């Protein structure tokens, strides 16, 4: 047999593999999702997410100095609120936890891209991302509250608000609200194709935000988060969010939806973010703990696959560890 082309020639040595590598992960691709809690000097480990913590505002600032020092350009903040009510009042309180966290961070690290989650679930007694009216998550009433929440973050100085609630029309409404109040520089990273996924379990543990089991409370988020079986619908959702003014669109989770990321990359020019969620993080950690996979290699392979699929930026709990590894190896 006369072989003319031998693909193995380009795999012979590490330098040759480096020269022909198609996808290279950079620290600049990473966004670190972080949890904020009340108090001072608090750095509380999260049981359901080993290696992750709830930080009080002062500790958050300290940690972000390290994070930014490693070259990570963005952090995405979630509030851990014990004060929950039917109307999610603490979600938009001027002096609420996230609002204070943003002020402190922007004062200490003005160039760090500070992003905030916009959704009501950490602040409602029932754990849904919107308001519950007559047993249903009410769309338009929720959008009004989400706009107030986004505005309160903008007033605190946030760079990007990141609505994760999946209500219809919220991107356009938030864009208008921001612009009307003089916040045209505040960006929107829209969770556009967010699926009703089992992989959010550890996160809901971290925020005590799982939908409560009670009469009149829908037990899951399937009436607003997407059916995992659908990809055409994801393209429609992304197109809508772009029309409504999203600066960045997101696919979430990442690993079970790499095809959605790839398809979005083909169809749209808008920057794409992918969220390597808590359950995906947990799978790697759990398998590594059992000695079934090597943690660092699983981390690199996972994050590289998400970038290869077409993501411009990746929200990941591995951000700090990955940034450290990149620093050691490059
Ligand atoms: C809620 C929200 C969730 C996540 C981000 N924002 C959970 C949910 O929708 O129930 C999940 C993040 C993760 O699992 O890492 N608005």
Notes on the protein architecture:
It is globular, with a radius of gyration of 20 Å. Strand 2 (43-45) and strand 3 (53-56) form a beta hairpin. Helix 3 (97-108) runs parallel beside helix 4 and helix 8 (258-267) packs parallel to helix 10 (295-309). The strands form two sheets. It has an eight-stranded parallel β-barrel, surrounded by nine helices. A two-stranded antiparallel ribbon has the order 6-7. The longest helix has 18 residues, at 139-156. 39% of the residues lie in helices and 18% in strands. The protein is α/β, with parallel strands linked by helices and 330 residues long. The mean pLDDT is 97. Ligand PBG is lined by residues 117, 119, 121, 129, 164-165, 200, 203-204, 221, 277-278. Ligand PBG binds next to helix 6.
> Reading side by side through the largest sheet, how are the strands ordered?
1-4-5-8-9-10-11-12
Mean pLDDT: 97
> Biggest sheet, in brief?
8 strands, parallel, barrel
Distance between the termini: 41 Å
Fraction of residues in helix: 25-40%
Helix-strand string: HEEEHEHEEEHEHEHHEHEHHEH
Shape: globular
Number of strands: 12
Which spans have pLDDT < 50 for at least 5 consecutive residues? none
Structural class: alpha/beta
Radius of gyration: 20 Å
Q: In DSSP terms, counting alpha (H) and pi (I) runs of 4 or more, how many helices? A: 11
Tell me what portion of residues adopts beta-strand conformation: 15-25%
The oligomeric state is single chain
Hetero groups: ligand PBG
């Amino acid at each position: 047999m006369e072989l003319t082309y031998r693909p193995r020639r380009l795999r012979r040595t590490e330098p040759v593999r480096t020269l022909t590598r198609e996808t290279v992960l950079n620290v600049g691709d990473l966004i670190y999702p972080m949890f904020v809690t009340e108090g001072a000097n608090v750095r509380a480990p999260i049981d359901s997410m080993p290696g992750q913590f709830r930080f009080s505002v002062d500790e958050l600032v300290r940690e972000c100095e390290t994070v930014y020092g490693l070259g990570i350009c963005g952090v995405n903040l979630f509030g851990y609120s014990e004060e929950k009510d039917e109307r999610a009042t603490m979600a938009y309180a001027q002096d609420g936890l996230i609002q204070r966290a943003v002020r402190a961070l922007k004062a200490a690290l003005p160039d760090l891209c500070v992003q905030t989650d916009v959704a009501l679930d950490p602040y409602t007694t029932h754990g849904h991302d919107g308001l519950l009216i007559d047993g249903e998550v009410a769309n338009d009433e929720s959008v009004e509250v989400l706009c107030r929440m986004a505005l309160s973050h903008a007033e605190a100085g946030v760079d990007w608000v990141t609505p994760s609630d999946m209500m219809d029309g919220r991107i356009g409404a938030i864009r208008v609200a921001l612009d009307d109040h003089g916040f045209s520089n505040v960006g929107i990273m829209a969770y556009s194709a967010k699926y009703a996924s089992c992989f959010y379990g550890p996160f809901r543990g971290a925020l005590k935000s799982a939908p409560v089991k009670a009469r009149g409370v829908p037990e899951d988020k399937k009436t607003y988060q997407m059916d995992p079986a659908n990809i055409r619908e994801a393209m429609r959702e992304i197109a809508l969010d772009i029309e409504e003014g999203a600066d960045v669109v997101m696919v979430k989770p990442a690993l079970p939806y790499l095809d959605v990321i790839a398809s979005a990359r083909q169809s749209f020019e808008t920057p794409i973010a992918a969220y390597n969620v808590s359950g995906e993080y947990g799978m790697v950690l759990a398998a590594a703990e059992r000695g079934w996979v090597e943690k660092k290699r699983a981390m690199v392979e996972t994050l590289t696959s998400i970038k290869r699929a077409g993501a411009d930026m990746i929200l990941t709990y591995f951000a700090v560890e990955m940034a450290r590894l990149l620093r050691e190896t490059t």
